[in-house]
Each structure stands twice: as C-alpha cells, then as structure tokens.
Amino acid sequence: MDGDPSPTTDDPRATYDAIAEHFAATREYPWPEVESFVAESTADEQATRALDLGCANGRHCELLSEHAACVVGLDVSRELLREARKRATERGFDVSLVHGDAARLPFRAETFDLAVYVATLHHLTTREARVDSLDELARVLRPGGRALVSVWSTEHGKFEESQGFDTTVDWTLPGGERVPRFYHIYDPDEFRDDLDSSGLAPVDVFVSSGNCYAVVE
After folding, report:
1. Do 52 and 73 touch, CB atoms closer than 8 A?
2. CATH second-level architecture of 12-216?
3. Model confidence over 107-131: pLDDT tens digits?
4. I want to staple 105 with a disulfide (CB 3.0 to 4.6 A). Which of 38, 136, 198, 215 is the partner?
C-alpha cells in the first residue's frame, strides 16, 4: 500500500503527526497552572536549563524561555516539532527541539533544574512505560530541581468512572476525519502511586480543572 500507514491508538507518534497542524492551531496559550508553577519556581532566580517534556507546538517552551537561560523541548512527533519551530521563529524565542521518547530521554543525568511534563504521560500505553518515564524525569533533574507533571483524571466531569482506566478520545480534523488518541485516565490515588513508585519526590499533588497535577523534585 502506498503512503504512510494510518495511525493507531498505541502509536502516539503517528497519531500526533496526523493531527499536528490542526492541534497546534488550537493550542495558543500556556495553562494557568503551568504559568503559576514556573513563576513560583523562578521567583528568586532564573532557571539555568529548562525542559518541556512533550512540548507539542511549543507554547510552554515560549513561557519557559522567559524564565530560563536555556530551554529544550522534546516530543515524539516530528510534525509537532515543526509546529514548535514555526512558533519559535515567528515569535522570536530560543529553544532547542529534540525528537525523542518520553520513556527514554536522550539527555545526561542532572541536566535540568526546571521541567514541565503536562498532558503527555497519559498517552503512554502501559504502566511500566509511564513509571519508566517518571524515572527518566527524575534522572535528568538536577538535585533541588523541580518539575510539574499533569495527567487527565477521573475527576474530570466528562468521565463517570472513579478508578483509572484506558480509553480513546477522538480528535476531529476540519474535514471530519476522526483520529483516535490513546489515554490512560488516572484516578488521583493511582497517580500518587505511580509517582511514589518512581524516583521522583512529590512536593504537592492536587487536582485542578479535572486534571491531576504534581510538583515533584
């Protein structure tokens, strides 16, 4: 068969390559929770190196660039990285963009003193991969470094379940094509369990706007 294969729910790279341009157009502003975390974490001094893990179109890279001397954005989707590069060029902020897997980060240990990892962990299809990814985040954080992690939660009004579960959520392109995306929807206790099973030390774990968040070291 000619052309690229259709994306499957267990292949986030292909899924987000397929929807990258439309997805990027709908993701203009940083999340308020991320803005608050970054502002509080850099209130005393600018970060040296910051990481946006699962950077998508670079909206949080842009925010980080205002608070860190060096910003790196990583994503599994090359098409989303192209959108991030386009945003950085148009808006004039500096960022190094890296293609990579969130469960196997291509960075040396203790590289970053600030990181955001939002709306990405829940796309990894197994618990092992999710905990491995949290371990990788712990590995690349410097001693005393902090990160903000977020996932979709059963606390969101659209879900009736009270325990964590796997599902798909379709993305609808302008022409009407529906592209399924894998999600693991966390319940708050499960989220805390995965954090505790990793090398991260939770400082604050909370729910906001239907998402689970954790400030970790």
Report:
1. yes
2. 3-Layer(aba) Sandwich (3.40)
3. 999 999 999 999 999 999 999 999 9
4. 136
